[in-house]
Write a structure and sequence with these properties.
By secondary structure, the chain is an alpha+beta fold. The chain has one domain. The chain has 4 helices and 8 strands; from the N terminus they run E-E-E-E-H-H-E-E-E-E-H-H.
């Protein structure tokens, strides 16, 4: 676990599918030795679960998620400025929490597909592995913006190409460490 890995707490009113595991709290981090992004999530009354995401799968997911966010507000120049501002506000609103720790003995899956369900209020991501085991993650617009900020920062840290990101995401500055005054 990288120090300072951001943690998101889900809290949407998007109901879980019957019989499906759903993350309630999760930590997202880049693991250089795997060259993958890992989501370590807490499922109610179960041990933590890690879902591994490849760059290729994320490249296909990003336009779907950013497209949903773009539909949430007006189009055009004012819309792009609005999205940039909303991304900065989401980054600022992300509060530090205790991370979900990925341990050697926990269950781990490589996502082979991600199903996306959308409503007016939230997006539900269903991560499926090759054995068709599924885990859900439901995010409202603010939570999705926060998670996309985290993933964008991880892309930058990993040296992955940023060409699938819209301009309004690329112009969101990374948080800077606090400056010391003397």
């Amino acid at each position: 676990m990288c120090p300072g890995s951001p943690v998101l707490q889900t809290g949407t009113d998007y109901p879980s599918m019957p019989g499906m595991s759903q993350f309630h709290k999760f930590t997202t981090e880049y693991v250089a030795t795997e060259d993958r992004i890992r989501i370590s999530g807490q499922i109610e009354q179960e041990s933590p679960l890690s879902i591994w995401l490849t760059q290729r799968l994320l490249q296909r997911l990003l336009p779907v998620l950013t497209g949903w966010l773009e539909q949430q507000s007006p189009q055009g120049v004012a819309g792009e400025i609005g999205h940039t501002f909303a991304q900065q506000a989401a980054r600022t609103a992300l509060t530090p929490q205790e991370p979900v720790n990925a341990s050697a003995g926990e269950s781990s899956r490589l996502a082979s597909a991600i199903d996306v369900s959308r409503s007016a209020q939230a997006v539900r991501l269903t991560f499926r592995d090759q054995d068709d085991q599924s885990t859900e993650l439901a995010l409202n617009a603010t939570q999705l913006r926060q998670w996309l900020n985290i993933v964008h920062d991880l892309y930058t840290r990993a040296g992955w190409p940023l060409d699938s990101w819209p301009d309004w995401m690329r112009s969101t500055p990374e948080p800077q460490p606090p400056k010391m005054l003397q």
